[in-house]
Every structure is written in C-alpha cells, then in structure tokens.
Amino acid sequence: MASKRDVNLTINGASHAVSIEPRRTLADVLRDDCGLTGTHLGCEHGVCGACTVLVDGRPVRSCLMFGVQAEGKTIRTVEGLADGDTLHPLQQAFWENHGLQCGFCTPGFLMLAAGALEENPEMSDNEIKDVLSSNLCRCTGYQNIVKAVRIAARELRARPRA
After folding, report:
1. What is the pTM of this model?
2. What is the spatial distance between Cα 147 and Cα 35, in angstroms, rounded to a whole number?
3. Structural domain tally of the chain?
C-alpha cells in the first residue's frame, strides 16, 4: 500500500483536509473522501467529460488529475453551482429546456459550460457547440443541451457583473 499524503483542498469555498494516496484521482477524492458525489465517473480516460470540474476556474477532467495536484487550487464541483435553493442559470436552463435525460453526463456539461461562460459570456452558437463537443451524451442528441447553454448565456450576460 502506498503511503498517504495529507492535503488540504478548497472545494466550493470550503476547506477539506484529507489523507490520500498520491495515485488517487481528483474524481475519486471528491467522491470518496469529500462526499461530493455529483462528479460522475464515466470512461476514466478523459474522453467522456462526465467528471469535469473547475480548477482555478478552468474545466478539468478530474479523472486525469491526481488529488494531490489540486492542493493550493480552487476547485468547484456541480454542488457549488447553486446558491442555496436558487439554481444557477445553467441548471435552471437545463431543467426548463430538457437538457438532460438520464442525467449522467449533466454535471460534466454544467461545469464545462460554467467555466466557458465565466471566461467568455459572449460566446456565439458556434463557440458554444465547439466547447460542448468535448463532452459526450448518450441520450439527448445535444440539441437541448446547446439550447440550454445558449439561454443561460443570455441570462448571465443580462446580469450585472460583480
């Protein structure tokens, strides 16, 4: 058994002190050690995008990053999108526009889109499609996912900037 390393992770604004083996992925640490099961594991090879989280504001496949690599960085998971009972505009748009069916890929799409829209809220439809093309969905055919992100982008643009 490999020796464990004590790390302090900042996830959704909260500090999580964990003792983990250096070989464990961030996805496994989030789910198993921090109890944040919204991050889903699909292919575990960085292909599907179900495990996408934001690390320092950038979308990252958490199955390809070791938990120890996240120390000192700001991590945001799907659990960190909503503000209490108020859904994030992306979550609201996915819900209202049927941007999900089975829901397995949804957390990854939400975090990918959140990172992209926070970086560029003025994305065109083609840019939205290009960003979303890196994640896979086996149910919806993508049209409602793109529609939901487009509507959320409009909502986010209309909000006053902090």
Report:
1. 0.94
2. 31
3. 2
